[in-house]
Amino acid sequence: MIALLIISGVVLLVLFYGVAIYNKLIKLRNTVKSSWSDIDVQLKKRYDLVPNLVETVKGYASHEKTTFENVTKARNMAMNASSPADKAKAENMLTSTLKSLFALAEAYPDLKANTNFLQLQSQLKELEDNIEYARRYYNAVVRDFNITIESFPSNIIAGTFNFKQEEFFELESPEVERKPVKVSFS
Fold first, then answer.
1. Which domains does the chain have, with CATH numbers?
2. In terms of Cα–Cα distance, which of 172, 125, 141, 186 is closest to 31?
3. What is the average pLDDT across 52-75?
């Protein structure tokens, strides 16, 4: 009788522990989705700001058609990317073209003094900071989720219920970001 109680107690303990692990995995997965949504919101604000920025610069540098086309193309690619890896690649391209746009603005002193341009530039800087914070949080949550999926004994529960690892949202490496921006006045 005592052996049966002990065995029942152990089985219940293992069952409760399995439920606790499952609930933790669900919580982490939902936190990953929520934090990705936060990044998406910041990126959408950025995408909405880019056309205003391009139009402002166009008024001063209308002959720089290729730069404007590249920014617009990069923005569209970023908006249509779906996975974190695709989104990161597209964001790197958009960031690069925006750097070219700001480098172009350096050649036009009237544009650099334009209140609207300065305000848009400030808004973009703030959005870039918010995107960085959201990206760091997302990557931290993904790290915790992936560690939980790979760790024993939660990997048994994760495998049983088909939990899959999430992708990190990684931008270009620091070596790539340190390269100077190419500016062409063609």
1. 33-178 (1.20.1440.20)
2. 141
3. 84
